[in-house]
User: Fold these one by one.
Assistant:
Number 1:
Amino acid sequence: MAKLFLVRHGQSQWNLENRFTGWQNIDITALGQLEAQKAGKALAKESIDIAFTSTLIRAQHTLQIILDEIGKPDMPIVINAALNERSYGNLEGLNKDETAVKYGVEQVHIWRRSFDVAPPGGESLKDTYDRVIPYFEHDIKPELEVGKNILIVAHGNSLRALIMYLEHLSPAQILEREIATGDPITYQWDQIIH
């Protein structure tokens, strides 16, 4: 029975600085590296056949640390922008607290936490869902259906979109879901109704 493992990348420099990161290519911090090692230790006894990740260095670096930790540094890796973090558009690089002062706490909350309202020049969670799920169905799901164990290392919102799909959650339910950095989530593929 195939397993699907999801891991959010370790803490990035802009997570630490409380900045909107989105598609900016920011690497992980020393703490992020430790989180990736912890994820690797948690997955060490699992059999993983193939890994998928985004085009962003924080996810790729986290994945490589995990693969080193589990002793499979040469595992096949598929990199695709469909797994990238949600784009925050014009907010990328801005401090979240300063942005709340400038635009108002309520407006920033709507941009960050509504399902279908995008920040200026960016993507809503619905937009992210609309690129993640077709990619999952076309490229990842067939691997699970032939019995391969899959590791996806990606981002808070791309993983949130995938979890919404896998668990049949409503927009309100998924917006309440927090995904910790470096903490693997495991699904038994045969127990997921698709």
Number 2:
Amino acid sequence: MRILNLAGRLALAVADGAVDVETASGGRFAADVQAVYPQWAEFREWAAGFRGQPTTQIDENDLGAPVPRPPQVFAIGLNYREHAEEAGLDLPERPMVFTKFPASVTGPYDDITLPPGSVDFEVELVAVIGRRAEHVRVDEAWQHVAGLTVGQDLSERELQTAGPDPAQFNMGKSFAGFAPIGPCLVTPDEFRDPDDLELGCLLTGTQMQKARTGDMIFSIPQIIAFLSSVLPLLPGDLIFTGTPSGIGWAREPKRLLGPADELVTYVEGIGEMRHHFVTTAR
């Protein structure tokens, strides 16, 4: 199952098009995309039995974030061995967690304003919670996942690394538009192996990052088990699961985002996002 934010309304992908969920369900489910996650089990049962035909075509210009207002946004640092090596840091013994504030979420094809500083790219697989999770075991964790989507953990490195310690990770990664996700949410059953997907990004046509999520140090179930041992995970929460090697900040010379760039971000079995960047007055 694939769900969409189509022109601000919850939609279900069907064949080569989509249906408006509020209309198709006779009002059982609201048009508000975010409202579906607290009803995820009920919605998934309805969608599995839906046999209608598409009523609209999918125009990528109408696609928004499939989770537009997440209650919480978690992100995992240093979750690929080669990324830890390029950063010159030891492998973590447990998931290294920071946050991106929910107001940083944007859609898969939006223009993003570059703040002053050094803005970097980080392709990530994003897990979306569909069922409240507290003290979840690793072998139960996938039962709490609504689906997966593509994400970018955009980062302004100068603010992120500003002292004194601790570094300003949360602020440097939470400018408006710095958490783009999309183009859809795909349920785990759609993948041959949701723990091993190719992901990557291209910057103005040049491949910058490419890896498989099977290379992660901590898998999605391990991350959910760790997070839920500390606090409840809520329906609609986002978990950015970490980025592989190839970031611009670690290159020599550095390759950072500029106003002429196009950033294409993809994950196998989900799709791709495309972003262009504009500058802001200093």
